[in-house]
């Protein structure tokens, strides 16, 4: 086996696929605990677009919101178009991923994305996350690996939690706009048993004319026991939040001076949510290098959201506010095994596994409201769905320089929808099942010990809201509606290159494409489905990680992508995929030396088409953040974070659609609505200061 690749490949394989082992063993494995998961290097990855962010990279970066941590994944942008209690808006690889449709996120092995969610398919709310507890951010892009399942067509991110802390601490953070945060965490180890606990309290009004009045509490407790070869962990998490939101507003009202950039057209928008989970993991490592992991979880979830995007367009009397609800319990289990193999004199690694996820949704609803009071029911459904998955993948070392893998994944979705809306509930009820087989393959060739090239291809999928698979009548219009498949297929391929002359420098380039059979989605805001055309995306990504010396570290990421619908465009439509990200650039400069840690982060989100004809385009948005920590002595550390350091007046999100404000109804200027750009601004320059006392 190749001296410069095989050993490293097995280490990376264990780090990437053995998250249960890593989490439970952190007190026993100093290379994981101290340094965190490593960036993938030559010989240690099977594609140019997979890796693991350095812990100092994602922990030192200033984070306006917990979900910003996923920007440690090269090419990912996380923004917000509503209140901070709502899930982030994600962009990656030519997608406006909404709240997570094709970007799979797990925390400590538990799925975050929600299928058949009240607000949007794949909704991935990371606000329950306590960023200081995150030990690793591992990522993959594209449908190239058998382990990747639902919602991972564009990419996936796995966030792991610590099992032990160096010392207990308490931290207080104060900032502009009445921001307040208290975090306390600690752990205690006796022999091979460790208890860890953390609690976070947060409040924030934001820069909005209508104060956000965010009130949030998060907590985590973990028990872990074992050795480097065998262990178990049990983790409980709890989160609750409520907020008032300022949704996107029409640009025309801002330009005319009728509304400020931070104004609201409905002061009663907002919501509340909670999430409670219990998860357990077991791992075992054999003397021959085999690893087995088994895990299970249970999640109780509640969600209520009040939004108003069109104001008085559909109902000139009561307004267009609506409520979306989601109440569910989620159960799941998964098992995985990796083991060394030898066939025909060729060494390799076999990985296989199985999983089940069951969502028991007691209510997923959509209601017309006024000032948070229900006026009528659009949809109210009870849903049960189960996703069963199996996979297998064989990696083979053909020569000292060439290795390859082939795998297949099988997924079967079973679902039942019971409509409870009096008029159309029975017609929109039903049950069914859908299945899909997803083959994967890849090759890696080491040109030299420093250069490696990759070729990857695979089939993947994302699930659609199963209400769209049983629908018969559009609840908003009362007309017949077309059903959509529960699982939508995508096909992707990638050519990549990685250069790593030493452990201090890594550069990658990936040229990729992704084709979807259909962009079918359930539109939660309307309660109906919209069948979309097939689409095609392609692009190029480049990354660089350079540790200049003992103190300085530089990171550069760039991505350019092109997204188009395929097939015939209807009259008045074009082939641009609206809101698909086209250009992203990010840069980071980190300094760590003695008592001082500092980080400067730049992010650029380029213009993009806001409609299918490309007649309306968004403006670019550039964001510069700065963070610093100084250890006064071994107990006290002071911190400063400055967000939007340059004071740019960009937008977090832009949409193009028709709306009607109250004044336009009165003046008669709202015949059929006014087509306009609707924006949610980036927050202005603000600062937060913190003090941490370590016991």
SS elements, strand count: 35
Parts with pLDDT < 50 across at least 5 consecutive residues: 1-39
Oligomer: single chain
- State mean pLDDT (0 to 100 scale): 90
Distance separating the two termini:
48 Å
Class from helix and strand fractions: mainly beta
Rg (CA only) = 25 Å
Describe this structure in words.
6% of the residues lie in helices and 54% in strands. The chain is mainly β and 695 residues long. The strands form five sheets. The chain has a 22-stranded antiparallel beta barrel. A hairpin with a 4-residue loop joins strand 27 (535-547) and strand 28 (552-565). The chain starts with 5 loop residues before the first helix and ends with a strand.
Helices and strands, with pairings:
Layout: H1 6-17, H2 19-25, H3 30-33, E1 51-53, H4 55-60, E2 77-79, E3 89-92, E4 95-96, E5 103-107, E6 110-111, E7 134-141, E8 155-161, E9 169-175, E10 179-190, E11 193-204, E12 214-227, E13 230-244, E14 249-250, H5 251-255, E15 270-285, E16 291-307, E17 322-343, E18 346-370, E19 373-397, E20 402-419, E21 430-446, E22 451-463, H6 467-470, E23 487-502, E24 505-516, E25 521-523, E26 528-530, E27 535-547, E28 552-565, E29 583-593, E30 596-605, E31 621-631, E32 636-643, E33 651-659, H7 662-667, E34 674-681, E35 686-694
Helix pairs in contact: 1-2
Short description:
The chain is built from 7 helices and 35 strands. The protein has 695 residues and is mostly beta strands.
Task: Using brief descriptors, characterize the structure shown.
695 residues, mainly beta, 35 strands
């Amino acid at each position: 086996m190749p001296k410069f690749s095989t050993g490293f490949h097995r280490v990376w394989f264990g780090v990437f696929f053995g998250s249960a082992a890593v989490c439970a063993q952190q007190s026993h494995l100093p290379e994981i605990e101290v340094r965190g998961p490593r960036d993938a290097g030559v010989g240690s990855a099977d594609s140019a677009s997979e890796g693991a962010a350095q812990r100092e990279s994602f922990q030192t970066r200033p984070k306006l919101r917990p979900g910003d941590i996923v920007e440690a994944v090269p090419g990912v942008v996380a923004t917000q178009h509503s209140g901070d209690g709502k899930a982030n808006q994600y962009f990656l690889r030519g997608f406006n991923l909404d709240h997570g449709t094709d970007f799979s996120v797990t925390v400590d092995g538990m799925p975050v994305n929600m299928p058949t969610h009240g607000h949007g398919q794949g909704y991935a709310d990371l606000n329950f996350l306590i960023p200081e507890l995150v030990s690793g951010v591992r990522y993959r892009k594209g449908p190239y690996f058998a382990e990747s399942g639902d919602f991972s067509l564009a990419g996936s991110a796995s966030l792991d939690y610590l099992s032990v802390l160096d010392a207990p601490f308490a931290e207080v953070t104060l900032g502009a706009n009445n921001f307040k945060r208290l975090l306390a965490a600690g752990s205690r180890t006796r022999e091979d048993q460790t208890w860890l606990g953390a609690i976070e309290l947060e409040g924030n009004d934001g820069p909005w004319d209508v104060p956000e009045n965010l009130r949030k509490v998060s907590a985590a407790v973990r028990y872990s026991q074992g050795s480097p070869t065998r262990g178990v962990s049990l983790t409980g998490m709890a989160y609750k939040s409520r907020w008032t939101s300022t949704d996107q507003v029409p640009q025309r009202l801002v330009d005319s001076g009728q509304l400020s950039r931070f104004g609201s057209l409905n002061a009663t928008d907002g919501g509340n949510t909670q999430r409670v989970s219990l998860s357990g993991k077991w791992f075992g490592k054999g003397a021959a290098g085999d690893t087995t992991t088994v895990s299970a979880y249970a999640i109780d979830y509640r969600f209520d959201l009040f939004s108003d995007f069109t104001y008085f367009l559909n109902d000139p009397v009561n307004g267009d506010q609506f409520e979306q609800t989601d109440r569910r319990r989620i159960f799941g289990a998964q098992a995985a095994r990796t083991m060394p193999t030898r066939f025909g004199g060729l060494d390799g690694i076999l990985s296989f596994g199985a999983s089940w996820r069951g969502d028991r949704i007691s209510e997923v609803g959509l209601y017309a409201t006024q000032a948070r009071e229900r006026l009528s029911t659009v949809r109210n459904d009870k849903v049960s769905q189960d996703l069963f998955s199996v996979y297998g993948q064989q990696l083979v070392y053909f020569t000292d320089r060439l290795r390859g893998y082939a795998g297949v994944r099988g997924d079967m979705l079973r679902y039942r929808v019971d409509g409870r809306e009096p008029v159309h509930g029975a017609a929109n009820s039903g049950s069914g099942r859908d299945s899909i087989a997803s083959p994967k393959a890849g090759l890696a060739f080491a040109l030299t010990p420093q250069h490696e090239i990759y070729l990857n291809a695979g089939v993947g999928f994302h699930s659609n809201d199963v209400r769209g698979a049983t629908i018969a009548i559009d609840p908003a219009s009362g007309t017949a509606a077309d059903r959509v498949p529960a699982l939508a297929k995508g096909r992707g391929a990638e050519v990549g290159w990685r250069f790593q002359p030493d452990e201090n420098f890594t550069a990658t380039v990936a040229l990729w494409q992704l084709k979807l059979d259909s962009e079918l989605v359930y539109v939660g805001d309307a309660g109906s489905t919209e069948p979309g055309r097939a689409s095609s995306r392609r692009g190029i990504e480049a990354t660089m990680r350079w540790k200049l010396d003992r103190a300085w570290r530089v990171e550069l990421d760039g991505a350019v992508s092109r997204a188009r619908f395929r097939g015939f465009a209807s009259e008045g439509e074009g082939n641009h995929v609206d809101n698909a990200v086209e250009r992203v650039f990010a840069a980071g400069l980190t300094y760590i030396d003695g008592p001082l840690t500092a980080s400067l982060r730049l992010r650029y989100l380029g213009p993009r088409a806001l409609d299918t004809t490309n007649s309306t385009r968004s403006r670019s948005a550039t964001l510069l953040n700065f963070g610093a920590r100084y250890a006064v002595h071994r107990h006290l550390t002071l911190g400063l974070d400055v967000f939007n350091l340059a004071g740019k007046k960009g937008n977090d999100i832009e949409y193009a659609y028709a709306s009607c404000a109250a004044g336009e109804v009165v003046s008669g200027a709202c015949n059929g609505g006014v087509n306009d750009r609707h924006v949610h601004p980036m927050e202005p320059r603000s600062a937060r200061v913190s003090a941490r006392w370590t016991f």
